[in-house]
User: Fold this.
Amino acid sequence: MTRPQRSDAARNRATVLAAADELFATAAAPAGLSMDDVAAAAGVGKGTLFRAFGSRAGLIQALWDLRTEPLGRAIENGPPPLGPGTDPRRRIAAILDAIVVVKLDNRYLTLAVEERSGGASLYEQPQYQLVHRLLSDLLRDAGRGKESELLAHVLLAAVRADLLDHLIGARGSSRRQLRAGVAAVADLVLNGSGG
Assistant:
């Protein structure tokens, strides 16, 4: 049985998450943000951050979880096109588009999440594995058979934060172009010839 969080601890956590969210959205160099920066912006001691989140990676993960929780709920048990019961092809396209939107709306935070693997592969992160498994299953349901696992990796590669950031920053792509491009990749994977 877990003890409920004290009200001051819950308030501090919310304050820290709000400050970190603002910093990642507005900092000139988000990758360089430190726990000291977040503590100062939140008006709390650095110890409070470490007690609440354990590390910078824990703070980033908590913020990412907060940002992606609505999408996760929609995919798990929401209405079509994201939720169960949707044609697999339509659902895959909707999930990828929603991932692109979340990543673009939280560009620097997403980069920090994908970069913070701490030596572990991105492919070993629980969130990646969860989405990969879902896409693999949907691809199988859409008739892609034994190649489904590899194709799920291909689809997820198209929505990597560093690729999206490069296409926006270095190539000047618009959100509309990126979303259309990812839809085209999904269509190619779903409708390409097998074998």
The mean pLDDT is 89. The CA atoms of residues 15 and 121 lie 31 Å apart. The two ends are 51 Å apart (CA to CA). Residues 65-191 form one domain.
